[in-house]
Every structure is written in structure tokens, then in C-alpha cells.
Amino acid sequence: MRLPRLSPDRPDIDQATVKKMIDRAMKAGCNYFDTAYMYHDGLSERCLGELLQAYPRDSYYLTDKMPVWFAKNPGDIEKIFREQLARCKTDYFDFYMLHALDTANWKLAQTYEACEFLARMKKEGKIRKLGFSFHDTPEVLQQIVDAQEWDFAQIQLNYLDWELYRSREQYEILTKAGIPVIVMEPLRGGSLATLSPDATEILKTADPGSSNAAWALRYVASLPNVLCVLSGMTLPEHMEDNLKTFSPLKPLTDSERKTLDLALAAYRKRLAVPCTACRYCMPCPVGVEIPRIFGLYNQYKITGNKWLFLNNYNAIPEDSGASACVNCGRCVKHCPQKIDIPAQLKKIAAEIA
Fold it and tell me: Which pLDDT value is given to residue 272?
């Protein structure tokens, strides 16, 4: 999802860098690769399909997802699945999930009989483990958990969202049901890797040799029902830091948890918009650069540097800025964080007017 790009404003993947990162990961024992139908406008699946050919199929785990909102009828579910196998140049997926389930997508999955089809694919050996990724309330999660047997579930989980996004309740529902958890957004779109200066200082004082990202990854990996922790490693240095964190993993101590609580309290005072830059809101029908605007605005609120914010914001074309929002609401329907995006854009536009 966050592979290195040839250009920051295009989906084209820097495959030479990805190849080096895959080779480094495999050598270090990091062999779980997560992709999806729409990541990098469909290029992510093709990239992994090509580069993983260098390794025996049983030496790594390949994960993909079914985006039910792309389907117009039950037949499209099979069409998408077959296309994914072809893109990834594989005969099967080790882990496969219904993508981004919420109330609307769960209804679509039922309407298009996606669960029934994927169960058949599992029986045929084209799926080894069947689960779902989730973006909604614990109440909706309980309904999905109760609907059928699942091999695993993927949820947004990090120390900020433990309470803010009700991730604790989601984790507990899955744990009680005996469903292993795969963690997405452990760094909340990278925001927990940067933090605010005061929060960073708290963590650095406690452990000068550890990165902010390492604290966040260790937090989720310390939970007993976590099967795997995803990390969108855009740069080789991200990978090196993550490999260091898990070689070997050192679970957080009680003292370290208290330190992290202090850092979190400091950080929450600065956070403006709970955006993870997942880009599910894009493309905007009128061209507003939503994740970019929120990213710049959050950085401004964290650092207090308004000059830098305005300098970077003014580089965005006027017809792609916050004031260009027409309040159509399309982005809100797709936002996993349930952010009132038009309202936030209106607020930002008013602040810089």
C-alpha cells in the first residue's frame, strides 16, 4: 500500500527499490507480504507478483483482499479473484480477506455471496486462511464474528486508537472468539513514527536508542493474540528500523507502558485531524488533495510552524485546496476513520483565509 514510488504524486512503483527491500526482508526472515486490488492503482499486486517469482512459493506468505464495492454483481467477485491470482502470478493466497468491512461492505458481501465463493476457493486450496479486514464499530464487528467461522481478522490497532478508535473492544471481541489478530496501522499512517517534539522527547529520554516507530510496533506486538503486525515500509531505512525492532522483539515492560502513556498524552494535545493517509477518500470528484492537506495541517499543529505549513500548502493548486471542497460527501462514505472530511476542510480553509 505504501511502496516506494517513482514520483510522490503518481502510483508508479519504484520496483528497483522494492526488489532490494524484498531481498533484504526475506534474508532477515520477514516474509509476509500484504497487497490489495486497488493499491497503487492496481500496480501493487503486479509488482509483488513479479518480484516474488525469485523465491520458492512456500518460502513466503502472500495476502490479498476482496474489495466487494468494486463488484456490480455476484459474478464480479470471481472475476476479481481470478484477476488477482493472475496479477500476483500465484495459484493460491496464504491469507485472503474480505476488504475493509463495515456495515455497507458487509451488506454487499452478503448480497454478492462473497463469503460463499471464498469458502469454495478455500476448499479448492486457492485460499489457505480466510478472514476479513475491518473498519467500523465493535458492535458491527460482533455481527461479522457471529456470522461464520473465520481464520483471522485484521483491525486497526495502535496505542492512540486503543481507546480513540475503540480498538481495545475490537481486540477483545476477536480474542474472546478465538480469532487471531493481524494488526494494520500500527503507526497510524506514519504519524506515530514522528509524533510531536514533546512526546518524542519523553520517549527518547526513556530509551535514546529506540525510534518512535519501535515503541509503537512493540506496543501492538506485545499483545498475546496478535498474529502479525503490518508495516508500510516506504523506504529502506524504515525496513532497517523495523527489522531491528523485531530482532528479537522485546515486549513492553510495565514501566515502558507508563512512559508511552505520558508520550501519548502529550501527543493527543497536538493532533488535529485523525487521518492515516490511507487514501481511501481519493480520488476526490473535484480534485481536492485531501490526505496531503490533512498531513500538512497535522504537521503544522504538531510543530507550530505556520510559515512552513502555508509555504507547503500554497504549493497545492487552488482548485485542489481545502476551499475547493463542494461537500458532496463521497469521501466520508469511504473514510475508515469516519472523519467528517468536508467539515475539516472547511475549518482549514477558514483558518488560512
Answer: 86
Q: Are 49 and 85 in contact (CB under 8 A)?
A: no
3-class DSSP state for residue 319? helix
pLDDT in tens, 244-267: 999 999 999 999 999 999 999 999
The pLDDT value recorded for residue 337 is: 86
| Boundaries of domain holding 300 | 290-352
Residues 332 and 190 in one domain: no
Specify if 276 maps to a domain: no
- Residue numbers of the chain with a pLDDT score lower than 70: none
* 3-state DSSP assignment of residue 315: coil
Alpha-carbon distance 319 to 332, whole Å?
Answer: 20
**pTM of the entire predicted model:** 0.85
Would 166 be classed as within a structural domain?
yes
Q: Is 128 helix (H, G, I), strand (E, B) or coil?
A: strand
Q: Are residues 198 and 320 in the same domain?
A: no
Side by side, which strands form the sheet with 32-34?
Answer: 32-34, 61-66, 93-101, 127-134, 152-156, 181-184, 226-229
Q: What total number of domains does the chain contain?
A: 2
